Amino acid sequence: MAERAPRNIESDEMNDETDPFEGYPIQSLRDAVQNQFLAREDNVETPFGKVHCIMRGTPKGNRPILLTYHDIGLNHKTCFNPLFNHEDMHEITRHFAVCHIDAPGQQEGASTLATGFTYPSMDQLSETVTLVLKHFGVKSVIGLAIGAGAYVLARFALNHPDMVEGLVLININAQAEGWMDWAAHKITGWAHALPDMVISHLFGKEEIHNNHDLIGTFRHHITNDMNQANLQQFVKSYNSRRDLEVERPVPGGNVNVRTLKCPALLVVGDSSPAVDAVVDCNSRLNPTKTTLLKMADCGGLPQVDQPAKLIEAIKYFIQGMGYMSSASMTRLVRSRTASGSSISSLDGNRSRSHSNRSRSHTAEEQRGRSHTDVSMESASHSSVDNTTKSNALSC
After folding, report:
1. What is the pTM of this model?
2. CA angle 228, 229, 233 (to 5 degrees)
3. What pLDDT is recorded for position 176?
4. Are 246 and 285 within 8 A, CB to CB?
5. pLDDT band at 28 (very low <50, low <70, confident <90, very high)
6. Which domains does the chain have, with CATH numbers?
7. What is the average pLDDT value for the chain, to the nearest integer?
8. Where along the chain is composition biased (Acidic residues) (predicted)?
């Protein structure tokens, strides 16, 4: 079923200036070396085209892997390298194998898709995830995705809840594109090139106007490194997405309501163009399993703008699921332990008050379950309207 081209890849995606394994036990060092420096690169054959993917490390028994999916205009390298190259991320990746998926035709050096090739819909892209996991023999995942990729993994989780233990979704938009959005994109397309349209999707107006170096770097990548014909098809597919049709469960209401079954961490920068969409998605999910993290002084790509903060949140999220119990305590957890009654900002220079996170199960009980329910009611200083009664953090 799969066109296999497995090979070991030199870690050009790692930061050579730091030693991520200093001070670790020998076995942990071995695991880290395996996870970080050895990789298998495959093109998985699916009914919707070949899917380029890279598996770093070896899946361990029943432990999930980390699965990433990028946004439009990006691939797994340009989207996630700043995050996975960060030294703080090594503590996470030495516990989990990582699989990066590139949407068809979006990988580095991709050739133009064949004439007559019908680009898969967003629903179909979510089904290719199943085949990729089967190809690698993976039973379950913790998803990490942004924008279009967040939609793909959310759709995958809705259709295959038994295969997803948790989701970290950045800039997710659960809505279908409305006719006004469609018209705006059409008008924008008449006046601007494809790279400009993608830039306006990835970054907010403030960032575009003020951060010329960052925008210039990504504009150069989108223009010179991405296959423009393939990118246009991916953008068209994303703009044709259906509504996820998720609905917040109501106590005493329909128990079969369509919603994510796994814990979810929704992340958005406070100046991201996706703020409204993420807040809307949060209002439609189960508040006992969903946490909204709105990052202060952060733009459209938190994993690029503030990777250390995002890693801190991801580590805390994974610990809440019962994994990485031996990992060093994060600043967030230390602050909570010291105060006994609040969860402070991930940034030591800012402090915001939040109520206690209820944890009624022991670590062994947590491991016996697929996850731990997360409950973090936002306080009066939260960036999200408390009337939604959702879990929210602000940092």
Report:
1. 0.77
2. 110
3. 92
4. yes
5. very low
6. 28-325 (3.40.50.1820)
7. 78
8. 11-20
